[in-house]
Amino acid sequence: MENVKRVLRRLFGKEKSHTRAARVWSNREISRLAKHAVGEVINVSAWLDEDKEGRHYKDYFVNATGYYTSNYQGWRGIDEQSDFVIDLQLPAPTDCLEKFDLVFNHTTLEHIFDIHQAFRTLATMSRDSILIVVPFMQHLHGPVDGDFWRPSPYAIRKLCAENGFEVCYESAGPIGGKVRYYLFWASRAPEKWRVHLPKAAINSESILRKPL
Asked: How confident is the model at residue 16 (pLDDT cuts 50, 70, 90)?
């Protein structure tokens, strides 16, 4: 298993130069939000839970009472390192339904063709909030024929609404980057979170509407 981990780290553990700025940006955004998360948190499709800057995302959620990870077999799946095995192409396991206060997922949805099912699976695991990062502008990446979507803010908001969530915080960046991510925190109780979450520095649409 250690040999497998070394190979995976060599192949995927270091951020490519063209996506580095986007990863650093999203890490800064997540760190602003994560301290507000309390209760049980899960990083779904977490791989090794690494932020690719030398830390683990678990370290960000300092006020969580529990932190878990999930993975699934596949090109970056590492079942042995995870607390749960979850296939986002299927409904959530019954023991995970509304089990977590915050469901966190970073740049996975673009790789799942049935994005509606994947989002439903994430949503049904949460009893309160979801924190999602997706690419809006990025080169094709991942396995051959395994990169399908670049969701717009409108798509994410609609997916949230269809699953009983409302976006409380959203942002996009980095400004001027060749790769841009879109991040949002959505909740079943949005008014509660709007009081606690910081204001986004720049509205996501103001960035995404600018011509390339």
From this structure: low
Q: Determine the 3-state secondary structure of 64 from DSSP.
A: strand
Q: How many CB atoms lie within 10 A of CB 161?
A: 12
What domains are there in the chain, each with its CATH number? 12-208 (3.40.50.150)
Contacts of 201 (CB under 8 A, 6+ apart): 171
Antiparallel, parallel or unpaired: β 84-85 and 166-173 = unpaired
Phi, psi of 96 (to 5 degrees): -110, 0
Strand partners, 100: 126
pLDDT band at 201 (very low <50, low <70, confident <90, very high): low
Supply φ then ψ for residue 128, to 5 degrees.
-145, -70
What's the gap between Cα 181 and its chain centre?
10
Q: What's 168's DSSP letter?
A: E
Phi, psi (degrees; rounded to nearest 5) at 173: 175, 180
